[in-house]
Q: What sequence folds into this?
């Protein structure tokens, strides 16, 4: 009997590990695709408003999930007076994360954008300790600090330095860290589920975001944009909107099966490809040896973290999830 129990446990551990790896790979692919597509839309095509692009992503998320619930493909609670309380502060974090991320993508070259995004890992590690009570191991802390050091080295010789771009990306790092940690907390509580979190995040913020875009003139500038008749641009714009939904879903899955820190690091790990591809596309990267060396140090540290994270045994993941659940019940 005990032999069967041990085998069942081993099979369950393997299944859990597979879910962790597949959800992380799915998130990495979605994050890579939307970064590249957004770069083409905002930089190569010079679309005037990242706020309007963000509105398109919110609208796509609301539409897809509303239709999915209507045909019973997905399930999540209907709107009631308690939804806002249960989801807060995620909508505000969601809006800030999206706006600052798109703005940073527009202002900076992809290699520098991806390097500075690694500060979100440090912020996530700190927030996991403060909010979830999860302390990173020494090997994780070391690899995270190496990533940050590489990013600082690259920034020291960034000839395309932009105060608005750096500010937006560092704000985005903070929003990303807060989103990952609070998303983990809300998912563990199982009140709204991953689809409910996605739907109400977008629903509660689409009206305030529209008002902001209207007040800043972004809606008018976007309506007058010259390339709406260009089918390639329209295809990329719509792809970005749909990818916004896919990215949100992949973040949910990765956070559900992994830790918030792992979700954040996977998002930065996919930037290995984005870093080198960004030296070619966009046309805004200027090479220097110090900058290039710093980028590569940060990339190498990302690889070390990935190895350290996924070599942990499945029961260590289970203990981590149990610890997170206990924090939610306090």
A:
């Amino acid at each position: 009997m005990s032999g069967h129990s041990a085998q069942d446990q081993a099979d369950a551990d393997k299944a859990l590990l597979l879910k962790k790896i597949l959800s992380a790979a799915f998130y990495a692919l979605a994050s890579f695709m939307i970064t590249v597509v957004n770069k083409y839309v905002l930089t190569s095509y010079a679309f005037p408003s990242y706020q309007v692009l963000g509105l398109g992503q919110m609208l796509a998320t609301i539409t897809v999930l509303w239709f999915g619930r209507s045909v019973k493909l997905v399930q999540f609670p209907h709107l009631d007076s308690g939804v806002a309380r249960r989801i807060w502060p995620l909508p505000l974090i969601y809006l800030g994360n999206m706006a600052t991320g798109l703005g940073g993508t527009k202002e900076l070259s992809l290699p520098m954008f991806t390097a500075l995004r690694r500060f979100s890992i440090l912020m996530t590690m700190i927030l996991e300790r403060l909010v979830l009570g999860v302390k990173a191991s020494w090997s994780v802390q070391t690899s995270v600090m190496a990533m940050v050091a590489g990013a600082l080295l690259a920034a020291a010789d960034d000839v395309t330095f932009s105060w608005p771009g750096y500010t937006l990306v560092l704000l985005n790092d903070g929003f990303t860290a807060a989103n990952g940690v609070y998303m983990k907390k809300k998912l563990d509580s199982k009140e709204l589920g991953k689809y409910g979190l996605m739907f109400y995040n977008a629903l509660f913020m689409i009206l305030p975001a529209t008002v902001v875009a209207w007040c800043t003139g972004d809606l008018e500038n976007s309506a007058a944009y010259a390339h709406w008749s260009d089918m390639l641009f329209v295809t990329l714009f719509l792809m970005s909107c749909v990818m916004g939904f896919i990215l949100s879903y992949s973040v949910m899955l990765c956070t559900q099966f992994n830790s918030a820190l792992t979700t954040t690091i996977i998002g930065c790990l996919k930037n290995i490809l984005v870093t080198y591809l960004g030296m070619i596309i966009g046309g805004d990267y200027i090479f220097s040896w110090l900058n290039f060396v710093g980028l590569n140090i940060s990339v190498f540290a990302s690889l070390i973290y990935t190895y350290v994270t996924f070599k942990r045994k499945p029961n260590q993941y289970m203990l981590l999830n149990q610890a997170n659940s206990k924090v939610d019940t306090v």
